[in-house]
Amino acid sequence: MDRIRKSLVDAGLWKESHANHIHVICGDLSLPGLGLDVRILQHLVENVSQVLHVAAHLNFIATYKNLKATNVQSTLFLIREFCGHGIPLTYMSSIGVV
What we know:
Radius of gyration: 15 Å
Distance between the termini: 26 Å
Number of strands: 2
Structural class: mainly alpha
Oligomer: single chain
């Protein structure tokens, strides 16, 4: 959360009221279900209003085949799990830095 707050402060976008609405959930993109307990996933589906997906395994010289399981499959999981319940998913990519 500290990195999010700092980035928003640096960009002049932070409001203290944001702190009550942003919750960071750490998982593992390489694991099924992001490595999250099914109870955590169910709680999220029942309680979040939007998902912001900014995680990825970045390696600009790796092949698509090497990155697919981590980056593509995890994104497909989020689409099925959240968008399938009507929860918007915002995906942010690093393609802009290439």
